[in-house]
Design a protein that fits this description.
Layout: E1 8-12, H1 15-18, H2 31-36, H3 54-67, E2 72-76, H4 79-82, H5 92-107, E3 111-117, H6 123-126, H7 136-151, E4 157-162, H8 164-172, H9 184-208, E5 213-219, E6 222-225, H10 230-253, H11 258-264, E7 285-289, E8 293-298, E9 306-309, H12 325-339, E10 344-348, H13 366-384, E11 389-395, E12 414-417, E13 422-425, H14 427-442
Helix pairs in contact: 3-5, 7-9, 8-9, 12-13, 13-14
The structure holds beta-D-fucopyranose.
Beta-D-fucopyranose (FCB) binds next to loops.
């Protein structure tokens, strides 16, 4: 048997990507609503207004998960659905929706893993400076306490944030995600407050839900230099510092990596780096989202003097992300050795491909099947080396709104027809179902 008996086998989704019902039942506007309604931001000009209409079809989607034999589901709460202005008055209809969803999951033997922040900040808070405002730490802590108080009797796994690096840098430095800024100082300020809000929220979640497991999900990539040249190796080290170590060190050591502090010093003028010690609260688990290896070459461009290269001839997904399962094994072992998390969950892993149309009631997606097979093998290899891996969540259950890429990039195990909202299993869903059941039979 390659996976422990109590392993969490799940899928992951995020509120803005699947729920739709964007302004229904009192939900407040979120930054992705504002952003996607701004021309030129989303590749196919789409928005999350309807998405997969999961807000109305959640029962059907939970039934799909049950049919696949899953025992865990990672989803996120839409902050403005429960607190339309971000702080202050609560929207009962929003809370009721998540109550019903949690109950539906538990009735099917599926454990809810709740992510509190998967990028849909209330626009009302963005209007007050968003994560650049130091008050955002308290806004988030209050929201976390509210949700843990409401769902903590049934939800035993809590994730404060999804991918602080993406929130900070794709949203505020590269300008590709909401709120669409291009300002390095803003990005480091956002990262600091997001991390501090994590540190502030964890004890409040524990207070409201004493038997809960609490963690954070980081986007981590396996970084390698494109050559053995010293310059490339140093560039890869900097890229690793930028994306991985900045967040790992903050959460596990309560400090920022000194080499990176030196490098980006001017962008830290609005924060006190030493204050980050408050982000290092003891955690029950680390969530890792792994998709790819990043190959890095030395470059002339400040501040990181590093650039990503994608050599021809390697296998890439439709996102242009290299398929590199060995990176998952190596990353798991490295993070476990260097940071010592008590437990690890792969909270996202998956691939977009240009799938063929539905034919005879199924979508044939052999490349995605292969992607999952290889990455599950990598998980088994890491387990065999002693990594305390407790679960795996495929991204994603259903095709959905892939942020700046819109609906054209499909990550689902289940195909969505956006005209009819029909769900059709892909071959990868059957593969995952059979893989899980074979593991259970072996146990
Ligand atoms: C991750 C996000 C998730 C999804 C996948 C493809 O960065 O957390 O919402 O978009 O990428």
């Amino acid at each position: 048997m390659r996976f422990p008996r109590d392993f969490a086998w799940g899928v992951a989704t995020a509120s803005y990507q699947i729920e739709g019902a964007a302004l229904e039942d009192g939900r407040g506007e979120c930054i992705w609503h504002r952003f996607s309604h701004t021309p030129g931001t989303i590749a196919d000009g789409s928005t999350g207004d309807v998405a997969c209409d999961h807000y109305h079809r959640y029962r059907q989607d939970v039934a799909l998960m049950a049919d696949l034999g899953l025992n865990a589901y990672r989803f996120s709460i839409s902050w403005p659905r429960v607190l339309p202005a971000g702080t202050g008055s609560v929207n009962p209809a929003g809370l009721d929706f998540y109550d019903r969803l949690v109950d539906e999951l538990l009735a099917h033997g599926i454990q809810p893993f709740v992510t509190l922040y998967h990028w849909d900040l209330p626009q009302a808070l963005q209007d007050r400076g968003g994560w650049e405002n130091p008050d955002s730490v308290a806004w988030f802590a209050d929201y976390a306490a509210l949700m843990a108080g409401r769902l903590g009797d049934r939800v035993k796994h809590w994730i404060t944030h999804n991918e602080p690096w993406v929130v900070s840098f794709i949203g505020n430095y590269l300008g590709i995600h909401a709120p669409g800024k291009r300002d390095l100082t803003a990005a480091y300020t956002v990262a600091h407050h997001v991390l501090l809000s994590h540190g502030a929220a964890v004890p409040l979640i524990r207070q409201a839900a004493p038997d809960a497991q609490v963690g954070i999900t980081l986007y981590l990539c396996h970084v390698e230099p494109i050559s053995d040249a010293e310059a490339d190796r140093q560039a890869a080290r900097r890229h690793d510092g930028y994306v991985n170590r900045w967040f790992l060190d903050a959460v596990f050591k309560g400090s920022y990596p000194q080499d990176m502090v030196t490098l980006v010093e001017p962008a830290l003028q609005r924060i006190d780096p030493a204050a980050i010690r408050a982000a290092a609260v003891p955690l029950d688990f680390l969530g890792i989202n792994y998709y790819t290896r990043i190959l890095i070459a030395a470059a002339e461009t400040a501040p990181f003097f590093a650039q990503e290269v994608r050599p021809a001839g390697l296998p890439y997904t439709a996102m242009g992300w290299e398929v590199y399962p060995e990176g998952l094994r190596a990353l798991l072992v490295r993070v476990w050795r260097e940071y010592g998390p008590r437990a690890i969950y792969i909270t996202e892993n998956g691939a977009a491909y240009d799938d063929p149309d539905v034919a005879e009631g199924i979508v044939e997606d052999p490349q995605r099947v292969r992607y999952y097979q290889l990455h599950l093998d990598a998980c088994a290899a890491a387990l065999a080396e002693g990594v305390p891996l407790r679960g795996y969540f495929a991204w994603s259950l259903i095709d959905n709104f892939e942020w700046a890429e819109g609906y054209r990039k499909r990550f689902g195990l289940v195909h969505v027809n956006y005209q009819t909202q029909a769900r059709t299993l892909k071959r990868s869903a059957l593969f995952y179902r059979d893989f899980i059941s074979a593991q259970r039979a072996a146990g």
